[in-house]
Design brief:
alpha/beta; 2 domains; six-stranded mixed sheet; 23% strand; 251 residues; binds adenosine-5'-triphosphate
Length: 251
């Protein structure tokens, strides 16, 4: 497994986005990024996944083993980005198909079952709900065996109970990988993360997480206390940032 270090200033479209980043994503652990909408979380995800964009890093993105991240990162983007003309098995196995290797159909079917879509394998994405499409995208990431996994709001379209089940599934199947989880949900961060940061324009501040093993019980006192602390920090941050949009109410 490999850890990932990101440090420096991030720019987008010629303007500064976040200054003074110093993030160390520990090898084999789950790290979480939270922060207000537009702060740059998805941009960091794209940077780590090596996807193109109008961003520029004045600093360094490095791995603990010194090897390139190319070909070693699986990413679940905010939008599921499924192939509309392909069935669910073909969607889940797209990585193998693109690499020209034999797709593991049995594993794809098993994963579709694990994400609650058994019996729907022959459907196309248009015949799914938003939350079902998001679970196909989750299965597509879970089938990859990349050491680094970036999950950008992977459970945002799910109802609360399904979300908890998918968190448990991802925690089980991605155990031992270096996972970078982006979320707006304080409970999700507290349940899954070994470490994490709250991002703001001026950099990143570490999260205060329980010492108990993940995935943490959502009923446990230490989980709920950490969730409340994090919610309070997010609330304080939004008051400080004063990001009020002008309101064009009709007169
Ligand atoms: N092509 C672009 N040119 C200039 N700025 C851009 C471009 N694409 C995105 N941005 C800006 O970059 C900033 C960071 O976007 P990003 O998607 O990384 O934020 P985020 O923290 O993931 O937000 P959210 O929580 O809403 O998903 C935003 O303010 C956005 O407006």
């Amino acid at each position: 497994m490999t850890g990932v270090q990101l440090q420096g200033d991030l720019w987008i479209g010629g303007a500064p986005l976040i200054r003074g980043l110093a993030l160390g994503f520990a090898a084999g652990r789950w790290s979480c990024l939270l922060g207000p909408s537009g702060v740059g979380k998805s941009t960091i995800a794209r940077l780590i996944a090596g996807l193109p964009g109008p961003y520029r890093l004045e600093g360094a993105l490095a791995t603990a083993d010194g090897q390139s991240l190319a070909g070693r990162v699986a990413m679940l983007a905010q939008e599921p980005q499924l192939l509309p003309w392909a069935d669910l098995v073909q969607n889940v196995t797209i990585g193998a198909r693109l690499r020209g290797v034999r797709p593991d159909i049995a594993r794809a079917r098993a994963l579709l079952g694990e994400v609650g879509l058994a019996g729907m394998e022959a459907r196309h994405p248009a015949a799914l709900s938003g939350g079902q499409r998001q679970r196909v995208a989750l299965a597509r990431v879970l089938i990859e065996e990349c050491p680094v996994v970036v999950l950008d709001e992977p459970f945002s379209a799910l109802d609360t109970v399904t979300r908890l089940a998918m968190q448990d599934l991802a925690a089980r199947l991605l155990r031992g990988r270096t996972v970078i989880l982006i979320t707006h949900d304080p409970l999700e961060a507290v349940r899954l993360a070994d470490q994490g940061w709250l991002l703001g324009r001026g950099g990143a501040e570490p999260l205060d997480l329980p010492a108990s093993p993940t995935p943490r019980d959502f009923r446990a006192a230490d989980t709920l206390a950490a969730q409340a602390r994090l919610l309070a920090r997010l609330h304080d941050q939004s008051l400080k940032t004063d990001r009020k949009e002008p309101c064009h109410a009709p007169h």
